[in-house]
Amino acid sequence: DMSLPAPTVRTTCPYCGVGCGVTATVKPGTIPIIAGDARHAASGGRLCVKGAALGETLDLDGRLLYPHIREEGAMRRAGWDEALERVAGGFARIIEEYGPDAVALYVSGQLLTEDYYVANKFMKGYVGSANIDTNSRLCMSSSVAGHKRAFGEDLVPGCYEDFELADLVVLVGSNTAWCHPTLFQRILKAKEARPGLRIVAIDPRRTATCELADLHLPIKPGTDVWLFNGLLTYLARHGHADAAFVQAQTEGLEGALATADTDCSDPVQVARICRVDPGKLLAFYEAFAASDKVVSAYSQGVNQSSSGTDKVNAIINCHLLTGRIGRPGMGPFSLTGQPNAMGGREVGGLANMLAAHMDLDNPAQRELVRSFWDAPRIADKPGLKAVDLFRAVEEGKVKAVWIMATNPLVSLPDAEKVRRALDKCELVVVSDIVAATDTNDYADVLLPALGWGEKDGTVTNSERRISRQRAFLPAPGEARADWRALCEVARRMGFTGFGYEDAHAIFDEHARLSGWRNDAHNRRVFDISGLAGMHRKDYDALEPVQWPVAPGSSEGTQRLFADCRFAHANGKARFIATAPRAPVHAVDEDFPLALNTGRLRDQWHTMTRTGKSPRLANHAPEPTIDLHPHDALLCGVREGELARVTSRWGAMVARVAHGGGIARGSVFVPIHWSGQTASDARVGALVNPVVDPVSGEPEFKHTPVRVEPF
Ligand code: SF4
Question: Which UniProt keywords apply (predicted)?
């Protein structure tokens, strides 16, 4: 189905959730020329260094080009038929013997929406289990849960333009300058034009973002709920509540305020708990109170926490109290990490969601989805979330797992446990574009997938904008789209309903489902049925559009809640009482430092793509253990020398650095290095496998560790 590509193709960057538009020009014999797409509404032609270097990362070195299967302990090349038979036969046998919950899919924010849609339909409608989760669980599932609690559906109210229109941009747990660079450039440009725009950064580290902010609050890791509960009581006490809005459009304020008042009514006390200067804290509270147009954007520092969902709601509470939502220049804003974290959420790629934002625990919606799919069954309870899923693999409850476009042996917490789990698992199927990964070593079947520039479909960015990823390179070797592999396995398992001709047919079904019986009784905000019924050529030419897209129109929606109607049955938004609690594992004498993990400016995930570009590698050629010079002295380690970081779960070795603005008591280690890189520094092996009780998102930002000379 690969029609010949035009010389210049408009597509979307595969890295972060900003979702910048990219043009790729293919000239025979040279690497594709990558440039920013000035016509893309999310980015207006901007690209960051990672996006700009995409052309250098497209060679086929190290690519997985053919299916492989394990035979007598060793991998050998196989044909697609043989490999697919092995997958379908294995899944069918295990389901027959142990039931549908003995199999699982673990997918990724790197998948396109169409791949995700088919994976979800396969598991929830045909296998009959909700055991499909995604590495988005590790990224923004706390935001999903927070949105659902506050708004009744997983909804991001605003858009990127709001950052430019705001008078105050609050960046919480987000190194936006490095992790969402072109959005940060937009904020800085707006600030240049209108110096009254102020930026407050709330982050335990003094990151590049904090350097450029007007005010940096270096809070003690894990204390965000105290800080925002304190803000809520401050706003209430000083007369900044929008009483009419609160009265008419919300519920639950009394409970939320009572909870906040318990510990957080005194800013001096809050400053002490958060370990920030009381004057600076008050300056932030006053700035928030005084600015009608406030955007509070947050990322993994908020999400990746055992109280991540409460952190999200503590932030949203402040916007609900002041009625600052649904209007230009204001609102809470979740910055997603991956290019298609949102697309996965829309089709139900998480174990606790169904499809098109419908709920697994709602019998009417279950039946609605089942009948739309004409599926033989439908999962009737939430499946296992990422960390629990691999725990169940280790316990032998899940006996077959199909991993797509992600490397859990590097990225999950307590990664050594994942290794033991995969070692024991009866059938491990891995779909990837890379031949050698830590996870692939444990595969029984390896399926070659299409990479960026080869695959074709849609992604959704952080501002709800659906954009096309278009192919401009031929499929290498025997690589195939993930949705095709899924459909082939489904067909071999005797499932009907997987006869899609192309990505367009899948998107069309997804769009129709989103609007199907979306009436007063079943009211859902996520509805893109205005995009259903497109011709193939219109899908190919689809311009970036923000959902919802109303039936009968192809215009998108820039902001939600302009009508102040939320998705809970009574149309009201909910305040959530967020009782602050410390990270699950406290530092102690044996493990006196708190490990924080995250991204570097020029790398992406496990470097399978960005690692190919020498100029990107130059920024940080090797992993580092970043800590405060005083702590280094106490630990007996010196800058530039090797040291070992140890937690109760594992250990790793890297060079000591003092570059990252780390406060005393904290350590920062980047997430990108794996067993395949020159230095094996899998920080996931150290991370505590603690999760948020609501969202299941792991606590990547707080693991007690010690640092010693190596
Ligand atoms: Fe790609 Fe994000 Fe950079 Fe844009 S900001 S070019 S989406 S990595």
Answer: 4Fe-4S, Iron, Iron-sulfur, Metal-binding, Molybdenum, Nitrate assimilation, Oxidoreductase
